Structure formats: structure tokens, C-alpha cells
Automatic annotation (TrEMBL), chains A, B:
Coiled coil: none
Lineage per the UniProt record: Bacteria, Pseudomonadati, Bacteroidota, Flavobacteriia, Flavobacteriales
Stored Pfam families: ADH_N_2 (PF16884), ADH_zinc_N (PF00107)
Domain Enoyl reductase (ER) stretches: 16-328
Name of protein: NADP-dependent oxidoreductase
Bilayer-spanning residue ranges: none
Biological source species: Croceivirga thetidis
UniProt-listed InterPro entries: ADH-like_C, ADH_N_2, ER, GroES-like_sf, MDR_fam, NAD(P)-bd_dom_sf
Keywords: Oxidoreductase
Annotated SUPFAM superfamilies: GroES-like, NAD(P)-binding Rossmann-fold domains
Length: 333, 333
């Protein structure tokens, strides 16, 4: 049987258990031109909370009753498509389920000998691509820049900071808790860390970036975005990648009161969606794979098990109770 | 005697009469290398309210007891500087006073035969330069763009909209009251107007820009910025030129709650300060002078009289009780 998690109720605020319904259906048969994929891992990303809302966005809202949308990686176990062979490992948007048939559009093969499978939905997948194009193309970092990143121990933020270090920037990360702060400075080589759960972000930012910041890569929005705005240098760039702190709001999003700092500092705030760079994913994966092989770029996945544990695992995205890229193993050994 | 308006008290909220003190002092004598200018007109701009605050900004806060800072235009009546002759007309930042001695730094000569003197502190001065570089260099308009501008009947907004029309854009202006809306559509050739004092900006914007907007040139901030954010097209640009609605706030500035529209639409919000283009003012003045001569660009100044009337004239910037560029004649005939 194929265990599937259906999206059955649009949440208001936090997505509770009643958002989804776990069902079992027969494993589907691939039609002509299709493949059958046995999924190993699915990706959990803050953006998924936005996909649940019935609002105009960069992607269609999820339909009620559909399989919960998610990136995934798995193995081709039957193929009626000449582009894929049985035994190939593939990544795509397979959703929160154990098996999927697909015509292969949006799927690409990955090599489990080069990197562990979860890395293909992390650093070599959507979060890594987001980090790569966000900091290089939108943030336009150059050597010597002071770069601030929030969600710094997360799937996107940890890669953003490491790329900025590779490019010769000074990098300060904001993360929740001493363990994450130790991780980004001691293991990833960030120049400084701010523990937003236990320190004053405003004061620490003054200490760590006395001359201000050139680039702020924002994953969280809210109060931290507002504080970052007070520390901009001339011609600073703010990359709006996400706003984790606001995704579960029942009320209006908190707008950045200090946005007039953009005027004072001739600064730019620009939004990004990773899909716009789809044609260049190969280039980015190759470069990041090389950095990983050279030991310059570290990838960390926090893997949980069991499709039935999706709701409690998903909640970790917003409590921060995880370390690195959040992944759920849905295959049963 | 030289009537001078001194800045004597930092206002909280609206600048009341006690912000300034009108004094009379002997007309100064120019030292070697200096000129004596008899000032005819001074410029009133919303940015002046910001200069009064004791806060880090793009320019030093005004010192208590100094002459109120202002752009001005006047006549050289004595010269000990070989670059300027008696009888020359010059523009610079002479402040709110009738006479000034200066070494001429930041002053340039203007020709009263080519344009009326008030135009040199309006369309051919700082507001015109702001409009020119803001819409062309920051807004990056191109033919066919849908352009929205707030403060559309004002010194900056009216020029922004006309330049966008010259460049082949569809232009919608937001202004307060039927008279201003008639002016921008009937006299200036805007494609549409929204009377924010009497109409729903949200509904009218949907009607007038059914496909959304490519560029929003923001002079006002607040609620109107937030509404504009809901109507962005892909890759839209927002030019943050000012925030008139927020300058007199006693509480925190209202941040744009809908800023995540930047993410959804891969849009950019960029701040600007006109001084950054100082080296290119000549180019802009020449181009705008040519457009004026060709009848493509109209300049309107609303001239009040009497240095003693500065406080009540200044208040018109924020009530909107004016038409076009606000100017005060400080010379006594």
C-alpha cells in the first residue's frame, strides 16, 4: 500500500494535526511514458506553510484533498519512460507520500555515490539553490562585504553564510540557542553569531558589525528585519527570501517600520523566488558539489522518520527545534 | 536689515510656530572670496521636516539656533569672488533669510530669461532632479510600463508622471482633491487619477491598473504604499523617495505590512537621495529645459509671500493645501 498525507483543511495560524489526513491507497501503476518512484525522503521547508494559504502567490495554493506538496528524493522501481531506468535515483516534487507515478517532468536523476540522498533535497536541492542564487545574484556580495543572515543554522541560512565566507565576506549569523550559534561559528566558520533567544539582537549587532552591514539575507522577517534595517551601510542590499516569524500569523504581517533606512542609505530590498533560476540549477549544483568535495561547504541534515510523524516534524520548522535541513524519511525499511 | 528665520526648537510631530524665531540682523558684508546674495525665493520641501530631527540621516540634522535650511534663488549684489558678477542670479542652499554671504560653494548661476526664478528651485532644482533621476535611474522605466505615483500634483510627483508619459508609459497619479486630479489628467496628460481624500485607493487602483503596476514612485508612505504593494507586477520597482504621511508622526513609522509582495513578485524597493546625482544635474536640467521649451513638460509653482509667513506656508506641505511646487518670496519689493 501507498501511505499518503492529504491536505484536508486550510490552517489559520499554526498548522495543527487536523490540517492533514493520513490515508492508504494501492500503489499506483505507471502508464505509458511514466515512472513509478519509491520515495525515500521528503523535504520540509517553511515555504510549505505559505502554499497552504488560499492567496495569490508565486505558486498555486494547494487544493484541499490533494497530497501535501513537498520536494522528495527516491528510487525508480518501474519505468515506462525511456529517460529513466529502474534503479535510478531521482529528485522532484513528489509530495508527502511513499510512492508516486509521474511523467518525469521536473524530475532529475541524482547520484547516491556522490552525496547522501537527503543532501539532494537540502544543499544540492531547493534550499541550496535558494542560498546560492540569493546571496550571489540578489545579494550581489563582493569580497570584504559584511553579511548578516538570519535563520543561520537552517537549510538556507547555513549555506548562505558559507558561500559568503568562500567569497571573502565577514559573516554574522542569527540563530536560536547556544548550540546553533556554536555550530555556525565553530563548524561552519562564521565570524560571529547572535543568539536571538538569549541575547539582544540590537546590541550584539552593534558590537559585531560596528560599521554596519552591506547585505542582510532575511529568512525570518518581523523584529529582526526591523533591527537589521537600523544597521545598513550605504548601498546595502536586503534579500527577502522568507519570513518564518510571520508565516503562522493570524493577524496582519508586521511590516518593517524602519524601511525609510532604505532611503537614508540608498539601499535596496529585493524579493526572490528560487524557481526563477531553474535553468541554472545545474551550474549551482556543480559548484556547490565541488566546494563540498573540497571541504569548504558543509551540509547538515536533520532526519526524522515515519510519514505519520509529518505534523510534529513540520512544527519544528517554526519552533526551531532542529539542526540544519529538516528531512523526513518516509520509506519503510 | 536682514530678516532671518532661526530654527530654535526641535518639533515633536507637526512643526508649530515655536519651532522658529524671526530675527533682524544687519546685512552682512562679503569677505574676500565671497559674494552677497539678495534672496528672492526660498524652496519649501517635505524633506525639511526630516532635517529638523536629531537623527542619523543622509544629511546632518540642523543645529538649534541656525538659520532654517532651505534651497533658494537670488541675485548677487556684491562680489569679491571672480566666479560671480554683480547682477548674476544664483541658486543654492541659502536658507530662510533675505541676504546671505557665501564663498559660492554649491551655488550656480541661473538665467531668468530662460525660466522664471521660482522654476530654478522647482522643476529645474532639487524636486525636478529628484523626479528625473528617481524615475529614470531608480525606477528604470521603459516604454509600456504602468507607472503609479503618489503626491502626483506636487513638485516631484508632477514631474515624475510627465517624464514617464514622455517615455511612453501609462501613468496613474494619486492626489488629494478633485482640483489636483483634474490638473494632472487634464493639464499634465496623466492617464488616470485617484483622489485619495474622496475615493477608495484600493478599488480605484484595481479599476485603473487591472494588470497591476510596474513602477510605484512613492512620496507618501503609509497606507498608500501598502495598497500599492498589493498591485505589483512581476519584477516591479518601488522607488522610495519620501514618506510625507509619516514625517509628522509622534509614534513609530508605519511599516509596509505587505512587503512580502516583493518576494511573491520578485520586486525591488529602493531608496534614493537626489544628492547622489549631483554631478549629472546639468544633464538633467538641459533635458528638462528642452522638454519645457517643447511644451512637453509643465512646471507649476505656488508662490506665497513674506518671510514672516514661513510657518503657515510650511504647514501646507503636509495638509496638501497647495498646487505644485511650494515657494516663498522673501524679498520685499
Amino acid at each position: 500500500m501507498n501511505k499518503q498525507l492529504l491536505f484536508v483543511k486550510r490552517p489559520v495560524g499554526e498548522a495543527g494535526d487536523d490540517t492533514w489526513d493520513l490515508v492508504s491507497n494501492p500503489i499506483p501503476e505507471p502508464a505509458d511514458g511514466e515512472i513509478l518512484v519509491k520515495q525515500h525522503y521528503i523535504s520540509l521547508d517553511p515555504a510549505m506553510r505559505g502554499w497552504m494559504n488560499d492567496a495569490k502567490s508565486y505558486i498555486e495554493p494547494m487544493a484541499i484533498g490533494s497530497v501535501m506538496r513537498a520536494g522528495s528524493v527516491g528510487e525508480v522501481i518501474a519505468s515506462k519512460n525511456s529517460k529513466f531506468n529502474v534503479g535510478d535515483f531521482v529528485s522532484g516534487h513528489g509530495g508527502v507520500q511513499q510512492y508516486i507515478t509521474t511523467d518525469g517532468k521536473g524530475y532529475y536523476t541524482v547520484d547516491p555515490k556522490l552525496a547522501p540522498l537527503p543532501t539532494y533535497i537540502g544543499t544540492l536541492g531547493m534550499p541550496g539553490m535558494t542560498a546560492y542564487f540569493g546571496i550571489l545574484e540578489v545579494g550581489k556580495i563582493k569580497e570584504g562585504d559584511v553579511v548578516l543572515v538570519s535563520g543561520a543554522a537552517g537549510a538556507v541560512g547555513s549555506i548562505v553564510g558559507q558561500i559568503a565566507k568562500i567569497k571573502g565576506c565577514t559573516v554574522i549569523g542569527i540563530a536560536g540557542g547556544a548550540e546553533k550559534c556554536d555550530y555556525i561559528t565553530n563548524e561552519l566558520g562564521f565570524d560571529g553569531a547572535i543568539d536571538y533567544k538569549n541575547e539582544s539582537v540590537r546590541n550584539r549587532l552593534k558590537e559585531l558589525c560596528p560599521k554596519g552591514i552591506d547585505v542582510y539575507f532575511d529568512n525570518v522577517g518581523g523584529e529582526i528585519l526591523d533591527i537589521a534595517l537600523t544597521r545598513l551601510r550605504l548601498h546595502a542590499r536586503i534579500v527577502i527570501c522568507g519570513a518564518i516569524s510571520q508565516y503562522n500569523n493570524k493577524m496582519a504581517v508586521k511590516g518593517p517600520s524602519n524601511y525609510l533606512s532604505l532611503l537614508v542609505n540608498r539601499a535596496t530590498m529585493q524579493g526572490m523566488v528560487v524557481f526563477d533560476w531553474a535553468k541554472r540549477y545545474g551550474e549551482a549544483a556543480q559548484q556547490m558539489g565541488m566546494w563540498m568535495a573540497q571541504g569548504k561547504l558543509k551540509s547538515k541534515e536533520d532526519v526524522y522518520e515515519g510519514i505519520e510523524n509529518f505534523p510534529e516534524t513540520f512544527a519544528r520548522l517554526f519552533t526551531g527545534n532542529k539542526m540544519g535541513k529538516l528531512v523526513l524519511k518516509v520509506i519503510e525499511d
